[in-house]
Amino acid sequence: MTETSLEARREILSSIREHLAESKRFDTQDVHPPTTARRTTSKSVAGDRDKPVIELFRHALEAVSGHCSIVRTIDEAAQAVQEIVAERKASGPPATAGGSDSHSRRVAVSDSALVRAILGRVKTEAAFLDSPSQAELFDCDVGITCAQWAIAETGTLVLESERERNRLASLVPPVHVAIIEASRIRRSMSEVLELIKKSDVGLSRAVTFITGPSRTSDIELTLAIGVHGPGELHVIVIDEAAPPA
């Protein structure tokens, strides 16, 4: 090794020693934020695991701008539906002179037996359309369906086409009201996928996952609600085991 190389090596090592000496005062300082963040996250996950699935579902649904009502009976579910329909009538266009306002009273419904049982208890002037035509469907303010499953961790509804004719009623009207029994809420997607795979009616041709109102953003990331689907989502959970309010 030449004298020039040795000199260069000494300069490099000297520079390293100087920088190590400068940084020595930082060696005794603890770095808390990452550890704290990990512990906080762990506690949060543990807390979610301890929550009942209904409360976890409600929290997740409301976090994505959905609305959740937990009721105990079909009669209470009917009252919740009645209030939603009444709100839509109040916010609809004014009635025309000499006639009634039919537009604000159109509600598309699925063929679910539970939906029909609930609507039979609803007191309203709204017209419930069981099999609306395409033109009628786009003229409806509300669509009412059931949901076959729900995922608590994400607030997601799962609709199976082989169990209920619900796809258009859940996607076209600007307001979607979904009714689900508490016993059909599962904690994770993996649980729901396993149940769908083992379904007694077979795998549906269409399985729809709905997480909150429809969201769309353009190339500038400007968020728009309700462009390609309902702008409002109301979920009514029937929990017969819930204590009286």
Quaternary arrangement of the chains shown? single chain
Query: What portion of residues is helical?
Result: 25-40%
- The fraction of residues assigned to DSSP E strands is 15-25%
Let me know the CATH homologous superfamily.
Answer: NagB/RpiA/CoA transferase-like
Strand order within the widest beta sheet: 1-12-7-4-2-3
Termini separation (Å)? 88 Å
Characterize the overall form: elongated
DSSP strand count: 12
Provide the residue-averaged pLDDT. 81
Number of domains: 1
The radius of gyration over CA amounts to 28 Å
CATH fold naming: Rossmann fold
Give structural notes.
With 245 residues, the protein is an alpha/beta fold. The chain has a single domain (53-93, 102-238), classed as Rossmann fold. It has 8 helices and 12 strands. It has a 6-stranded parallel β-sheet with strand order 1-12-7-4-2-3, with helices on both faces. Residues 29-34, 40-46 and 94-103 have low confidence and may be disordered.
Compact summary:
It contains eight helices and twelve strands.
Question: How would you summarize the topology of this molecule?
Answer:
Elements: H1 3-23, H2 33-50, H3 53-63, E1 67-71, H4 74-91, E2 106-109, H5 113-119, E3 127-129, H6 134-137, E4 142-146, E5 149-151, E6 156-160, H7 167-171, E7 175-181, E8 185-186, H8 189-197, E9 207-210, E10 215-217, E11 223-225, E12 232-238
Parallel strand pairs: 1-12, 2-3, 2-4, 4-7, 5-8, 7-12
Antiparallel strand pairs: 5-6, 6-9, 10-11
Throw out a few tags for this protein.
245 residues, alpha/beta, Rossmann fold, four-stranded mixed beta sheet, 12 strands, elongated
